[in-house]
Amino acid sequence: MRNLDITTLRSFLAVAESGGVTRAAGFLNLTQSAVSMQLKRLEEMLDLKLLDRSGRGVTLTPAGAQLQTYAQKMIELNDEIYSRLTDQSWEGEIALGVPDDIVYPVIPEVLKRMGRSHPRVRVELISSSTNRLKAQFAKGDVDVILTTESGLDQGGETLLALPLLWVGAPDGQAWKQRPLRLAFCSYCAFSGHTIAALDAAGIPWEMAVSSENDRTIEASVSADLAVTASLEGHAPSQLVHVDPGAQLPTLGMQKINLYGYGGGGNQALIETMKAYLRQGFNTLGAANSNAA
């Protein structure tokens, strides 16, 4: 009887779900060569080709797709056994606050990892604006928050810096109109920064759409009634980043910052969550650099 190694299966599953060895290595906090070696060892042990590396990314072969289901079950069972029989601090609740516009693509993967490693921990995801999240954090209502802002407050750390870009409808013309028609949520931290840039450039503008609902803003911009701004790589899928050349001002860089409380009974959970967030945004930054 030959035994499959959980660590190797974990690496295989990370590659299968992320679509690449580099991204998987980031999530696992391993080197790319270490992950590649584990995959090679797994294929040799099973005498099967599990991954197709002929394209730009990595895809699963039929055998790999079949193994993925079993690997998922084995890893979940392994983690559940370990958590139930060992560290009791792996129980409890943690509140994570994230601005609406950066929930994707990192946060779902972070929540998935937390669920696997800490199956008895309840994670409450609070999606709101940076200003509201910072107010909740200051009152102790949220354990860990991410923010999008130009600066950094004491006690925080910057995970990633991204350009703030103009966003409009595909093939839209709204960005050419004067006064420039803007659409922002009433609580959006980017609106003041954008308006200041327009004023400095001497470009007239009007707030065409102001709403509490992100979907309203997206629908208005999709209809080419106005433009808005979002971080690079975080525009809704139905919208595009506008390249207006010299006709609109550049909006500079914005930081994705991380804040987490110290001390308390759930400190171990908070540190784990912060580590997963660091790894997730580090992987996102590497992917953006490769795409550029």
Say what the CATH topology of the largest domain is: D-Maltodextrin-Binding Protein, domain 2
The biggest beta sheet reads:
7 strands, mixed
Count all strands and give the number. 11
Estimated structural class: alpha/beta
Give the integer mean of the pLDDT values.
89
Describe this structure in words.
By secondary structure, the chain is an alpha/beta fold. It folds into three domains: 6-85, Winged helix-like DNA-binding domain superfamily/Winged helix DNA-binding domain (Arc Repressor Mutant, subunit A, Orthogonal Bundle), CATH 1.10.10; 90-155 and 259-291, D-Maltodextrin-Binding Protein, domain 2 (3-Layer(aba) Sandwich), CATH 3.40.190.10; 162-254, 3-Layer(aba) Sandwich (D-Maltodextrin-Binding Protein, domain 2). The protein is 44% helix and 22% strand. It has helices at 6-18, 21-28, 32-46, 62-85, 106-117, 130-139, 189-201, 214-222, 267-291, and strands spanning 51-52, 59-60, 92-99, 121-128, 144-149, 157-168, 180-185, 205-211, 228-231, 240-241, 253-260. The strands form three sheets. Strands 3, 4, 5, 6, 9, 10 and 11 form a seven-stranded mixed β-sheet that branches. A two-stranded antiparallel sheet has the order 1-2. It is globular and about 75 Å long.
